[in-house]
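So, can you check these tokens?
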Amino acid sequence: MARRPQDIAIPDQSGRLAVVTGSNSGIGFETARRLALAGAEVVLAVRDSAKGEAAAERIRQDAPDAAVSVAALDLSSLDSVAGFAATLAERGTPVDLLVNNAGVMAVPTRHSTADGFELQFGTNYLGHFALTARLLPLLRAAKAPRVVTVSSLAAHPGRIDFRNLNAERRYSAWDAYSRSKLADLMFALELDRRSARHGWGILSNAAHPGFTRTNLTRSGPTLGRAPGSFNLNEWSTRVPGIFQDPALGALPSLVAATSARAVGGGYYGPDGLGGLTGLPTTARIPFQARNATTAARLWAVSEQLTAVSFTS
């Protein structure tokens, strides 16, 4: 049985255009790299263009002929989302694959996006919601489009509290993160339901990376704190077997994005104990994520908050 990242084959992606958010490092980078190695043209949608160019060069070192480009995208700004989508629309090439991967985790104090949303809910969820809506025409123009939205094990304790979506009444770093990742998962499932209902032809599913050691586990918890005050990556090295590297953490996203066995409304994660580490398998969907009534309400509220709608 395959037990290494390189043993998991990625089907040929030649002729497909993939957009991967947050792809300058970590899980997003490994997702983009494997897609490029499989022949896809990959757009690295990143907040920091310089880091994106460095990531693109690393991919070209592995695959000199890889078609990789960098485009600026700040998911904490709806104007940036609109500008990114407009640039792709001007190009006019159908988008075969959108991987909603970027995010921020466990910010210790409440921060706001450019549009006034709580940073984690606004970036991890609302930014990707608006991006997917704006790219809908390009996705529908593709032959067999897929949207993969990256959730987290943290979605399990999450709750959608419509009275406190933006943590204005009270703020807890991990509650806000869990809410955003639950919303991501519910969005993936609801997008697949609506695609089937309206004939959009989009296969939408979700993935989670287990406990993967990335910049996300360092940058979010230290935002607004003194350097060295918290380092989840350093802590993780003291507990062997709980965390894994990005090459493994990216595999559930890659299976969701490319496998012929991946299904709409599916959820994929590591196969190890508790879904923490391992190779990709079908993951358990939290019961609250299955609530279609709440998902529909969240969708409607999200359209109001972002002033972006999905048109059939």
Q: What stands out?
A: The beta strands are 17-21, 41-46, 68-72, 97-100, 146-150, 203-207, 267-270, 280-282. The mean pLDDT is 92.
